[in-house]
Amino acid sequence: MQKNIQTKSDYLAVLAAQAAAEKLGFETIVIDVGEVIGITDFFVVTSCNNRRHMETIREEIEASLLEVEKIKPLRIEGKESDQWMLIDYGIFVVHIFDREWRSFYNLERLWLDQPTLNWEK
Fold it and tell me: Which tens digit of pLDDT belongs to each residue from 78-110?
C-alpha cells in the first residue's frame, strides 16, 4: 500500500529519498515503520554501485537536509564499509546498500505489510 506525504516526518523521509535519487541511488523505497518499531517513523532504503557511490549518496542526503531543513544526522554508521551505511536522523533512518548486500539483508521482506511513501516527483 502506498500513501502520499501528509506530515513533516513524511516530507523529510521523502527529501532524503529524492536526494539519493539525485545521485543515482536506485531501487529506493520509503517504508513507514512507525507503527511497528516505535523508535523511528521511516526507513529509507536505497542501493548503490560501489563505495564511492555510497559516499556520494550520503553526502547528497546530508547536504540536502541541511540546506532545506537545517537538520544534521544524529549518527552515521558504516562509513568505512563497502557494503552498507546507515544515516540516523531520529524520525527516519537511511540505509544505503551495495546491491549484493541489499539482496542478502532484504529489509523490504521484513516490512512487506507496512505502507510505503510515494516519494518520486
Answer: 988 999 999 999 999 999 999 999 998 888 888
Q: Spelled out in words, what is the top-level CATH class assigned to the domain 7-109?
A: alpha beta
> In the prediction, which pLDDT does 21 show?
97
- DSSP string spanning 5-69? --SHHHHHHHHHHHHHHHTT-EEEEEEE-HHHHSS-SEEEEEEESSHHHHHHHHHHHHHHHHHHH
- CA dist 1 and 42 (Å) reads 15
What are the residue boundaries of the structural domains of the chain, listed by start?
A: 7-109
How far apart CA 31 and CA 23 sit, in angstroms, is 20
At residue 113, what is the residue type? D
SS3 (DSSP) at 121: coil
